[in-house]
Amino acid sequence: MPKSDQMPKKDQVPEKQQELKGMQAHREGLDILHEISTLLNTPLTYRQLAICTSLIEEGVNPETLASVVKVLMAEHPEEENSKGSA
Questions:
Q1: How far is it, in rounded angstroms, from Cα 59 to Cα 35?
Q2: Are 33 and 48 in contact (CB under 8 A)?
Q3: 62-75 and 46-57 are packed helices; what angle lies between their axes, rounded to 10 degrees?
Q4: Top-confidence residue, 76 or 59
Q5: How far is residue 45's CA from residue 15's CA, in Å, rounded to a whole number?
Q6: Dihedral (C-alpha) 82, 80, 32, 68: value to the nearest 10 degrees?
Q7: What digits encode the pLDDT tens for the residues 24-52?
Q8: How far does Cα 49 stand from its chain's mean position?
């Protein structure tokens, strides 16, 4: 039987549940974004989309980020063929 000091406190349980729900919602949103990206034939991987999304959430200008991604893709076209590795 676990000791009482190892059990989460009552006020911590809802906080953890909220955190898990937030993570699940973030993942679902990213899944949808990846589906749209695939339908539009963008060469971005799931991981690359996650990075771009995180950068935008942190305040990076989306148009500037898109420009940088285009330049990087033009400079490194060989990376496009190895989608799973990036």
A1: 24
A2: no
A3: 150
A4: 59
A5: 32
A6: 130
A7: 888 999 999 999 999 999 989 999 999 99
A8: 6
